Amino acid sequence: MLATCLYTVATRVGANRIVRGGKFHHPFGNPDLPPREEYAFRYAFVQQTIRALCTPVQQPTVFDVETSVVA
Amino acid sequence: MAEPLRVVHYINAFFGGLGGEEEAQTTLSLQDGALGPGRLLEQLLTDEGQVIATIMCGDGYFSEREEAVVTQVQGYLRDLKPDIFVAGPAFRSGRYGLACGRLCLEAERLGIPAVTGMHEENPGSDLYRPAHLYIIRTAASAVGMQPALQRMAALAVKRGRGLPLGTAAEEGFLPRAVRRTVRTGIPAAVRAVDMVLKKWRGETYRSELSVETFEIIPPPPPLSDPRKTLFALVTESGLVPRGNPDRLPAATATHWAKYAIAGMDRLVPGEWDGVHGGYDNTAALQDPNRVVPLDAIRALEREGLIGRLWDELFVTVGNLGSLNAMKRMGAEIAGLLVERGVGAVILPAT
């Protein structure tokens, strides 16, 4: 699955499972957060990518990271 | 009457008359005069040009030794100093098209105007059009040899004599991603409204700019059990080991590389460089896991939430990537992953 913040490009190109990420220069990061929180965000994001891979889809589908998930 | 232009022609071994399986491995050679389709090319050039030499190579030989062949051809071109370099036409033959494109690029770099021809869907066309090469649009097969060579000869003469060229449609070459400002005498707003009215009325209209469409890939079924799945990390973010050992370019990449990540619990800042020219690499360099989340994936591995991560990271640079180059690289990487039993890919993209 594709992890990117440019989800509109991703859907147009036809990637089927897309997880919407942090800013495009750090899809799995958030430098505004302190390191522990940033890692928690990344961990939640990676969990979401696994969930997306386990979800049936019929067409390009965008999944969001649930920021409420606790590491 | 001006002197005939001195033309060097490149053909593959198949068109050089060496049929059969072995022809793909034919060694590079340089011969005087025209050979194979070069003879028709010469006829079509009439007294404007003459094929002084033919460079011939098997497509397999070329693709396996591209850099060495290029070096030799550069040598030939420097010695012969032709006015024009013509390659192909390659029609739909992929390796031939790639070879023609590469050699035309090298000729242009040596200051020799180059012309080739191939079918629009030849991988060589998408790869080399953005390099602003002149690629005549041809039919899918050698059935279209005559019209292809006719247009190639005409374009070659114009370029060789420094004559002004028409648009891609007029000269018959594939659009080169070059935009020329042309005065139409009609403001864009008026043209746009006229176009939309035609479209609305169901009349034919012609777009000024055509938008690329993408093929639909049916989604694979979901993973039955991630805990039993082998995952792989593939990225276009251009995150490479310090020093960029495989020289991935900042843009328009045509190759990819793989790097060992076995035993790594995370990506260590300082050990990785960001070479992708399309985004600010600062955040990535401070903590590469922000782009390739190895630390979090390893955590999931340890916790048994995923099966295992394949111990190589696949990297290319997606900046200004040619669609066909990316398709080819994707297919190459996917082929390797399938062989290794990888069931899922996480693809960080920037």
Count of discrete structural domains of chain A? 1
Global structural class of chain B: alpha/beta
What's the β-strand tally of chain B?
Answer: 12
Q: What is the multimeric organization of the chains shown?
A: heterodimer
Mean pLDDT of chain B: 91
Q: Can you identify the CATH superfamily of the largest domain in chain B?
A: Response regulator
Under CATH at level 1, the class of the largest domain in chain B stands as Alpha Beta
Provide structural commentary.
The complex is a heterodimer of chains A (71) and B (350). Chain A has one domain. Chain A has a three-stranded parallel sheet, with helices on both faces. The model of chain A is unreliable at 67-71 (pLDDT under 50). The longest helix of chain A is centred in the middle third of the chain and has 19 residues, at 35-53. By secondary structure, chain A is α/β, with parallel strands linked by helices. Chain A has helices at 7-13, 35-53, and strands spanning 2-4, 17-20, 61-63. In chain A, α1 (7-13) links the parallel β1 (2-4) and β2 (17-20). Chain B has two domains: 5-171, Rossmann fold (3-Layer(aba) Sandwich); 226-346, no CATH class. Helix content of chain B is 34%, strand content 18%. Chain B is built from eleven helices and twelve strands. In chain B, β5 (114-118), α5 (123-128) and β6 (134-137) form a beta-alpha-beta unit. The longest helix of chain B is centred in the middle third of the chain and has 17 residues, at 145-161. Chain A binds chain B through residues 1-4, 6, 10, 12-14, 16-17, 21-22, 24-31, 38-39, 42-43, 45-47, 49-50, 53-59, and chain B through 214-217, 219-223, 226, 229, 279-284, 286-287, 289-293, 295-297, 299-300, 305-306, 344-350. β1 (2-4) of chain A pairs parallel with β12 of chain B.
